[in-house]
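Weekly puzzle thread! Below is a chain. First person to post its structure in token form gets bragging rights.
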Amino acid sequence: MSVTLRLLGLLLPLFLAWPATADNYPSRPVHLIVPFGAGGPADVYSRVLAQHLSEALKQSFVVEDRPGAGSIIGTDAVAKSAPDGYTLLVMSNTHTTNESLIPNKPFQLMRDFVPVAPINYSDLVMVVPSSLPVKDLKDFIAMAKKEPGKLNYASSGPGTPYHMAGELFKAMSGTDIVHVPYKASGDARTAVLSGQVQMMFDAITTMGPLVKAGQVRAPKGTPADVVKVLNAEIAKVVDRPDVKAAWANQGAVPMLMTPVEFDAYLRKDIEKWASVVKVSGAKVQ
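Winning reply:
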């Protein structure tokens, strides 16, 4: 069984974490830090982006997965890196949610990072194990209300879209379902497939095939010319016909914005997730 939820789509933008100019950028390898687990949407799309950026800019773009603490560990590492355009952060709605959910972080998104360019977004889909004796959403809600506190839902950690979707679902349906956070989305996905947990909201790009089978940002101080170069090159990758076609087949929608437009978009996203945190009553335990 699956249910899509567009409100909580997964956003994958790129943020910058140089005292050089765009004329000779990049003159050495660039690192894309993914603060989520390997195999998840952020990791998958970052590798596509890194490949095309390496070809276009004639320099290595290396993807590094640094998951943990709901994206805090990897993000903090980028925040503390040199603001030279050689350390980029691949983020998701987890980051805009965490601005309200985890206020006492060692960084602040719009204070410590420079928006570069969005990559894509995709819907989330609610899934349950094929072994669960429910046929549709109505059956699942009935089961949850009949056994309050006995059903579990998985996520890849506090503040992630998967967590917030689950909390919003609980608030909207009036159900009591226990949140079980995992270190990475792959672990949460495995838990659902094996029946260890009874539900999960997941990115349709990664869960879609299983349903069918039945079963970047950077620290303040980054020069505007470097941001301009990266935004232009990322836009070229995102606008490639082959990339758009491949992503469309996976349920991902390319996003094109200028750095200024992207900055405004993120500020609105922070406000939206603040409302979701308030309505759902979600807290980090």
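Puzzle host: Confirmed. Bonus trivia for everyone else. Residues 46 and 63 are 7 Å apart (CA to CA).
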